[in-house]
Design brief:
- It contains 13 helices and ten strands.
- The chain is an alpha+beta fold.
- Strand 9, helix 8 and strand 10 form a beta-alpha-beta unit.
- Helix 11 packs across helix 12.
- The longest helix is centred in the middle third of the chain and has 35 residues.
- The protein is elongated, with a radius of gyration of 26 Å.
């Protein structure tokens, strides 16, 4: 289907004598025509960004949407906006199917298209525009068909990932059939799950065009077989993205998908409610589960991906994309049931003692080596000893005892999950 989009975009470029780009309604790039000549003659920063990063910025989106492109049924001319990097005007061909906008075809209005009659209530469009709109309508039908197929995949993927162990076989069979029918999927292909945490589900978008990305669905951060497992909460859903790998040992497609999805305006959760603009957005991170060739094992990969995303949010060295196999102790910590902090460590976790907690964690991360810890924190050894003494007094723990060190270390790490 991707080749169909490219063919139709090339048809529009040929009809109008100008390079065209096709974006979905979320401004994700789908296809673009060949650009000939010097870059500064045929490009501007917005088009360059769209092609290189496969997405336009929020400022550009707001500028274009202010002209009513989401409601338009005929081509529109949009003036430039240098403040948003739009140095050249645009002609926008809305891509619709049965009254629903599915995307936009863009042409740079750089002077040689000024003679085009776009048409209106009292005047017919130029014959070239009419031909281009016919191609745009065919694109709309393809996007609508893909959207329907994507909705089915979304539902069967959600059913599998949310199913308890006893229902996995039937749900896996349904997903296998849906993948085979829509994407010519071959059973035994290596797959993995990517988790984006948190994710805004208020306005579902079309699946972006990425190598290996087969399906995606929002899910609460919980385990169907263990609903009491810790998680960010029902108000903070995650996105589960199913990625096809070239081989089991190579997670490159999963990292590509994670990097792209983290740049989505939906990554990071829903915007702050009106009147609460001062609320800091939740940190966002991605996790990647262990690859598998068995669809029945995808719920396990999803749990691992979600745990990796939680660990990446808690531990800066793992952020922004963490593989479950690289989590170390966080593989155990993320699997523990939700619980209040240990009574001995609770006082240390108070905001007033944040510096002491940071010192204690650095000391334990450095295997109790005072010299390394002092150098890492940029403090004198005597300052370190003074702080550690305060930690012992506050918690009642003895940092010369291995069991006490283990308890404190685990509690400090777990407190950020």
């Amino acid at each position: 289907m991707r080749s169909d989009y490219q063919h139709l975009v090339d048809e529009i470029s040929a009809a109008l004598g100008a390079p065209a780009t096709l974006e979905d309604r979320d401004f994700g790039l789908i296809a673009f025509g060949a650009h000939e000549g010097e870059d500064d003659e045929v490009m501007d920063p917005v088009r360059t960004r769209s092609i290189l990063q496969r997405r336009s910025s929020a400022a550009v989106r707001a500028w274009f949407e202010a002209f009513g492109i989401a409601r338009a049924t005929s081509p529109l001319r949009i003036p430039p906006d240098p403040a948003a990097g739009v140095f050249k005007g645009r002609i926008c061909l809305p891509v619709r199917h049965r009254g629903v906008v599915h995307g936009y075809v863009w042409l740079l209005d750089d002077g040689h298209l000024t003679d085009l009659e776009l048409g209106g209530p009292d005047s017919p469009p130029d014959a070239r525009i009419a031909q281009a709109m016919e191609s745009a309508a065919r694109i709309g039908a393809l996007l609508a068909e893909e959207s329907r197929a994507g909705s089915e995949l979304t539902e069967v993927l959600r059913e599998l990932l949310a199913s308890p162990t006893g229902a996995r076989a039937a749900a896996a069979a349904a997903l296998r059939d849906a993948l085979r029918d829509t994407l010519r999927f071959t059973p035994g292909t290596p797959l993995t799950l990517v988790a984006i945490l948190p994710w805004d589900t208020a306005d579902p978008a079309r699946l972006p065009s990425l190598p290996g990305l087969l399906a995606a669905c929002p899910l609460p951060a919980a385990d169907a077989d263990a609903p009491d497992r810790p998680g960010p909460g029902a108000a903070e859903p995650a996105l589960a993205a199913l990625v096809r790998l070239r081989q089991t040992g190579s997670l490159a497609p999963a990292h590509t998908a994670a990097d792209h999805l983290l740049r989505s305006p939906r990554a990071g959760g829903a915007p702050a409610p009106s009147g609460q603009a001062g609320i800091r957005p939740a940190p966002v991170a991605a996790g990647i589960g262990v690859p598998t060739r068995e669809l029945t094992e995808l719920p396990d990969s999803w749990r691992q991906a979600l745990d990796a995303a939680r660990a990446a949010r808690a531990e800066p060295r793992l952020s922004p994309v963490a593989e479950w196999t690289d989590l170390g102790a966080y593989r155990l910590l993320t699997a523990l049931p939700a619980a209040a902090p240990d009574p001995s460590v609770g006082p240390l976790l108070a905001p007033a003692h944040a510096e002491l907690a940071r010192t204690a964690e650095a000391f334990l991360d450095c295997a109790g080596q005072a010299g390394r810890t002092a150098q890492h924190l940029g403090i004198h050894r005597q300052t370190l000893y003074y702080r550690l003494g305060r930690v012992e007094k506050l918690t009642g723990l003895d940092l010369d005892e291995g069991a006490d060190r283990l308890l404190l270390h685990m509690a400090l790490k777990a407190s950020r999950l």
